[in-house]
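User: Predict the complex.
Assistant: Input components as received:
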Amino acid sequence: MILKLLAVAVALMLLLWGIGKIPLSYNLRNLTVRWKTTLMTALAFTAVIALLTVMMAFVEGMKRMTEGTGRPDNVLVLSDGATDEGISNLPIGDLSEIENLPEVARAEDRPLASREAFMVAIQSAPTPSGGRPKRRFLQLRGIEDPRLTAWIHDLELLPGGSWFSEAGVQEAPADGDTPAPMIQAVLGEGVARELGRDRTPQQLAAAKKPDRLDVGDTFTLGNRTWIVVGVLDSAGSTFNSEIWAKRSLAAAMFGKENYTTLVLRAKDAETAKRLETFLAEGYEKAALNPKVELDFYKDLSETSAQFSYAIGFLAIVMSIGGIFGVMNTMFAAVGQRVGDIGVLRLLGFNRRQILVSFLLESLLIALIGGLLGCAIGSLSDGWTASSVVGGHGGGKFIVLQLAVDAEIIATGILLSLSMGLLGGLLPALSAMRLRPLDALR
Amino acid sequence: MKYFKLIFRNIGRNPLRSLLTSLVTIVLVFVVTMVWSILWLLDIVTTEKSENFQAMVTERWSAPSHIPLSYAEVLGRGAARNPGDVRPLDSMTWQFYIGTLDPEDPSSKNMMFTIACDPDKIAAVKEGKFTTMMEGLESLADGQEDQLIADVAKLKDAPRGIIVGQNHLKITNKRIGERFKLTGVSITKGLDLEFEIVAAFPPGRYDTMAVFNREYFNNELDAYPRSHNGQKHPLADRSLNLMVLKVADSAAFTRLASQIEKSPELSDPAIRCETMASGLASMLEMFRDLIWGMRWMLAPACLATILLVIANAISISVRERRLELAVLKVLGFRPYQIMVLVLGESILLGAGAGLVSAALSYGVINWGMGGIAFSIGFFDRFMVPVDAFWWGPAVGGLAALLGSFLPAWTARSVKVAEVFSKVA
Amino acid sequence: MNNPTNDGPIVRVHGVHKFFRRGSERLDVLNGVTLDVPEGEFLGLMGPSGSGKTTLLNLIAGLDKPSQGEVRVGDRLISAMSEGELAGWRTRHIGFIFQFYHLLPVLSAYENVELPLLLLPLSAAQRKQQATTALELVGLSDRVRHRPGQLSGGEQQRVGIARAIVTDPTLIVADEPTGDLDAHSAKEILDLLCELRQTLGKTILLVTHDPRAAERTNRLMHLDKGLLVEQRL
C-alpha cells in the first residue's frame, strides 16, 4: 500500500520533471548557491523523518515480536475472565481431562499439552555503581517437561545448552559459598542479555560471552542462586524475555499454587479452532478462556496499534515544522528570484512551468532531507529496546529489536515529499501569479 | 525603548514569515510541553523527598504484589517489637479493585481503577492541621482542603460511597449523588460492586483515581464463598496490594525498613519496604526505554526542528536586509548593536510563540482533553503543570537564540563597502 | 532562416490607444499610434521618460495588450491573442534585449542562451548547435561556461543578445540595451546589433535615450505625449 503510494508520488515527481521545461539544473544551482538555507530546511525534514523512522521501527519490532510468537495449531487455555497469563488461575483437577480431549494431538501415547505457570518475579538487580537499589521484573515460566513445552512452542536451545533436569536443581560447587543447590534455568536470549549486564568487570573478564549470560553462568533471584543450563534460540518471539524453570520450585518461591496456562497442540489449525470453540462454549466443568495461540499474541499487538496512533499524531504535528519551514524558504526563494521569473515569462515560459519549477525545487529539498532522515533513522535497525505489551492489570515485558523495512522507508519518503509539496505549493502559486512586467520592474 | 520598537517593526516587516515561524514554534513547543509534562510528574514521584517521607511496602519477590490483609496491623506499627523501635507516623492500606462499567465491553474506556482504603487516610484534621496520606493532596488550596474533609465525612457515612476523579464523572456520565455499578475484572473478577458517588476529587493529579471505604470491599470478599459453593475468592488471603507508611525522615525510614524486612511475622510471603520514590521508580523501570526515547529523542528532535526553522527564517531576513544593515552601520550603529537587533527579533519571536504555545497546551490539554492520556505503570493521565508557562517561553527563546546566533553574527560583520559596491 | 509569408511590413501597429487606471484616474499613455516596420529595418524609438516608449515596445512584443487598436506582427494579430498563446508566440518570434541584461545568475552563459530553445521541439544536438552559433555570433565562444557574475557588463549584454537571437525570432526588441554600459562597451553592442541586421537581416526595434545609439538606426521615431512623430528617415 505504502509502496504503491510512494511509487505514485515518484511517478508524479517524474511527470513534473517531464513537463517542466525549465531545466532542473536551474533549481539545483539555486539550491547550492543558497546552500545554508537549503541545508537548514532539509535538516528540519531530516530531524522529523529520522525520529519517525525510529518510532516506526520500534512499532514494527513490537509487531514482529508479538505476531512472530504462537502457532495456528496451538490453543492457549487461561481461566475465565483472564485476558493475561499473569492473572490466570487454572484449577488443577480439570487439566488432564482437557488434555485428553480427542482434538489434542498425541505422541508416544502422551497428549501434546504443556502445563505452565507464568509469573512475574522481582529481582533486586545488583548495583555495582552504588546508588539507589534497582529491581527488575523477570518473567518466569514454571514448566514440567521442558522438552515437551519447547517442542510445542517450536523452540530449540542454542548450541551447548541442555534442558533442566527432572529435579530442576544441581549441587553448588563445593568451594562456593552457597550451600543450597542451585536452581537450573533455561533463559531466553533477550533476558540472558539483560542479566548479563549485571556482571562485575571481574566476572565479565572471565565470561564466555561478553554480551549475555551463557551455560554455566549464575544469577540471583529470590534469595537463591540460579544456574543457566541452556539458552533458548528465541530471538523474535516473546519467549525471548522469559526464564524457564521447574514449576514446583518456582511456584513455591513466588506463591503461584496453580497453573496459569495450558497450551494444547491440536492436530491441525482447523481442529485448533474447533477446540477453542468447544472449550469456550461446550465445556461445562470449568469456565475457561481458550484462544488459538497465534490470535492470543496478535491481541497483544493491540499495544502497538496504540503506539501507531501516537506516532500518527506526532507525524502530523511535526510535519507542520517541515511544511512551514520549507514554506519560509520557498517564499524567500520566490522573493529573491522575481527577476528570474519575469525573464522566464518574457522568454515564453508559461505560468504552469513556473509553478512546476518551484514545486520541484521544494520537493527536491524535501527529498534530500527525507532521504537523510531515513538513512539516519535506519541506523536504529537492530537496536534492542524493552517495552511492555498488553494492557490493564498485566502485560508482558518484552525485549524487542527495532526493525526498519522498505515500508517504513517508503512512509518516511512519502511523508517528506508530502511536506515538500504542501510547503512548496503556496510559494509556487505566488510565483506563478507574478506578472512578467511587474516582475521586471 | 526605541530599540524595542525597531525590533518589533522588523518582526512585522514580513508578517507571513514571522507567522509561519511562530506557528512552527507553537506546534513543536506544544509537543515538547506534552513530553515534559509526562517526564515532569514521573521525575517528581521518583525523586526522594526530604519531607513528608513515605515508605511503600509490597510483596518482595512476586509481582503484582499481593500480601495478606493481616499484615496491615503489623505494618501499621512498623513491626516494632522492642522498645525503641521506630513506629510509622501514619499508615494507609491500598487494596485495588478493578471493574468495568460494561461487562459486555470490558475495554479500557469502560475500565475503572479504584482503591479500597480507610477514609481517614485520604484526608483528616489532626491537631488542627490538615493531613493526608495521598501524595499530591497535601498541596491543595485551603478551600479545597475543607471541601475534601467534608467529602471524606460523607464517605464515612455512606457504606457504598465512593470519591471519584473528574475523569470518572465524564466516563460514567453520572453526577455526584448518583449510583453506578462495576463488574469486577482481572484480579477482582467475581466481585461486583455498586457505588454511590459522594464527591469528586479536585481536578489534577487524582482525575483518574477513585477511592472507597475498605470495609465494603472486605465485607464483599468475606461474603464471596456464600454465593460460590463455599469457595474462597482467589484474593481472599492476599487482598492487600500495598501499604504506605509515613516516617519522619530518611534515618527513621532506614531503621523502619530493616525492622519490617526482618520481622518474622512478615516473612511468608516476604515483603519489601522501600521509599515511595524508589518503589515507583522500580515500577517505571519496565518503561525505561520508552521514557528514554521521549526524553532524549522526541523532545530533542522537536527542539532541533524549531532551531533550524528559526535559524533559517532569521538568516533569510538578514540576507534580505544586508543593504539596510549596512546603512545602519554607516549611520553609526556598532556591530554589537546590530547583532542585538537581530538576536532580539528572533528571541522575541521564539519566546512569544513559546508563551502562546504554553498557554495553549495548558488550556487545551488540561481543560479540553482532560490531560494527556498516556498509560504508563500506575499513571494513565498527565496534566500540564503551571511550570509550562516558563518552559514554553524559555524553550522558544533559547532555540531562537541558538538558531539566530550565526545569522546575527553574519549581520554584525556586514561589510559596508562590499554591500554598496554590489548595489551600485 | 525566417520567412514571413507576406511581403508587407513585419510589424503593423494601427490606431493603438493605451491607458492605465490608477484609482479613479485615467492615465493615457498612447493616443492613437500607428506604425509600420518593414522587414530588416533597424528602428529607433526615442522620447522623454513616461512618453510611452516602453509601453509601445511591450505591446509590440506581446507583453501587454492595447486598450484600443490592433497590433500585428508577421501574419498574426497579436492584440487578439490570449496570454497563453502569447507566451508560446513570444518564444518563436520575439528576441528580448534588456537594459539590465536579465540573465539568470545561476546559469552559465551557454545555459542562458539555450534557455528559450528548451521551449521548442528541438533535439539536444540541435539546441547545442544553435546556442553555440549564437554565442559565436556575439563573439563569446571562449566564455560559454562563465556565469553572469563572472562577466563584464558588455559581455553580459552580449549573452543577452545571443539569447535574443538564438530562436531566430521575427523581431528583436531592445529596451535601452546600452543604458547600463560604458561608452566603449555601448559602442561594441551597437556594432553588434548593426551587424546582426546587416548579415542576418534581422528586424530590430530599439528604445533608447542615448543619441549615440539613435544615430546608428536607419529610422528614428520620437514619441511624445502618446503620439508618434517621425524624426528622421
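Chain B touches chain A through 56 residues (CB under 8 Å).
Let me know if you want any component modeled separately.
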